[in-house]
Design brief:
The complex is a heterodimer of chains A (325) and B (199). By secondary structure, chain A is of the alpha/beta class. Chain A contains ten helices and twelve strands. In chain A, the strands form three sheets. In chain A, strands 3-2-1-4-5 form a five-stranded mixed beta sheet, with helices on both faces. In chain A, helix 1 (40-62) runs parallel beside helix 2 (81-98), helix 4 (158-168) runs parallel beside helix 6 and helix 6 runs antiparallel to helix 7. Chain B has 199 residues and is of the alpha+beta class. Chain B folds into two domains: 4-78, Phosphorylase Kinase, domain 1 (2-Layer Sandwich), CATH 3.30.200.20; 83-191, Transferase(Phosphotransferase), domain 1 (Orthogonal Bundle), CATH 1.10.510.10. Helix content of chain B is 43%, strand content 20%. Chain B has helices at residues 36-59, 85-88, 93-108, 142-155, 158-171, 175-187, and strands at residues 4-7, 11-18, 21-28, 67-70, 74-78, 83-84, 121-124, 127-130. In chain B, strand 1 and strand 2 form a beta hairpin. In chain B, helix 3 (93-108) packs parallel to helix 5. The chains are: A alpha/beta (325), B alpha+beta (199). The A-B interface holds A 138, 140, 142, 148-150, 152, 188, 190, 193, 196-197, 227-228, 231, 234-235, 238-239, 242-244, 264-265, 267-268, 271, 317, 319 and B 8-10, 31-35, 37-39, 41-42, 114-115, 135, 189-190, 193-194, 196, 198-199.
Chain lengths: 325, 199
Amino acid sequence: MLVLGIESSAHTFGAGVVEAGKVLSNKKAMYEIGTSGMIPKKVAEHHILNANEVIASALSGAGVSVADIEGIAYTKGPGIGSCLQIGQLAAKTLAKKLGIPIVPVNHGIGHIEIARIMANLADPVALYVSGGNSQILKIDAHGKAHYRVLGETFDIGIGNMLDNFARAAGLNPAWGSSVERQAQGGSYISMPYTVKGMDFSFTGILTHAQRQLKLHTKRDVCFSLQETSFSMLCEATERALLLTRSDEICVCGGVAQNSRLKEMLAIVAKDHGARIGYAANEFNADNGAMIAFVGERMLSRGIKASLSKCTIEQRYRIDSAEVVR
Amino acid sequence: MKPIVSEGAEARIYRTELYGRRILVKRREPKRYRIKELDSSIREYRTRREATALARARSSGASVPRLVGVGRYDLYIEEIKGKTLSSALGIGSGATREAGVQLAILHNAGIAHGDFTPANLILSGKRVYVIDFGLSSLTTGSEERALDLLLMKRQLSRAEYSSFIRAYRSNAAEGNETLARLREVEERGRYQKRTLSNI
């Protein structure tokens, strides 16, 4: 089934085309965050201006025309309301005009499922780390399948923390890549380390790291911030791995692009005889292909929504969304 | 060291002998994913915190294992013989009532256990011992205390919980405040679907 997926929950407007579980194209336009972060109205404007072109280039990149599309999937949430609305509108308009089925998709499930299947994992503990989300999840086998949240951040997502710090340090914010580059060869200074069971918190370490910039070199602060916050994620993931007796770890979401995080998680996996898997970076950043990917699996099982049910939900919890396996 | 009794995410428990007495050693093993400086400071801090909590609990009159010694990353603890409450549930309300009394003693002493589940309660004769203070905190507010109650509420049957909470309420100095906080915690959506018992 040829499915077009549209993602617009945050800074990225993405469109991807998937058929039979194969990604045929994955195009995006990204709002420049700069020094002021995401201003909802401005990001929505960016999406309005870029929607047509991104969708057109996804179609041409896949070598198909708009009339070939057999189904539409879009991000229902979680995300920024004004941004979600643009993707929703584009998806509903196309579905109505073409007379094809449409299905709303949970953003987080998009991230996890594309990584899980591309990495060929069966039933992993998933660490989903991005700007807005940081969670540890596993499929609940009882009843209809859905992801159960085993642990999560008490406050902000780790990506949000790294971006905020990067701005304070005069670095270019993006999933911790600038922090990672700066951290090379740094030495350790003490930072707050907050893990409670499988939950964690990042606001304390953010404030602390920002203050340390006045006392230590940028390199040492970046190094210590990265090592400490990633260790927190690893500890919680390790606990989840032991508790669920799983032998697979799947890491996904924007911050999964960070190679130090993947390196540390690989050690956790190795020490417990588990396997670690992740998708290519293109699919860890927000993208339309992951929405098309999950959408195709739902639509081909006959799961679709009437246009009046195609809503958005800013706080769409991942554990309330059914997963088609 | 002697055979491993159990292995958790944080520590391994070994059995050994000290002056002819059988004791347990709880050792926080190094984690290779963490850089050395961070790893040793976390293990050392948590070992010390757990030792403090255990000692304070005991001097407050709670039924907890005797702390025999403390190393940098090791706790030497008396072994409690008995059955965990998780394996002995359904045996009547006496044990759950005693669990409520024990939790009240801990909270009155300013200790939140952090992992107060039937698996960490040992029924030994008529006494209920509280073990594993690895996630405990000593600077407790009503939130931490409420989370101790929430874990029990999720894992006990209604009748068991009712005898547990009655005993807790009549022994806890700030019982009403903690129960009010528990209602608040339960109303937060994110906790509603998060029981661990049915993973």
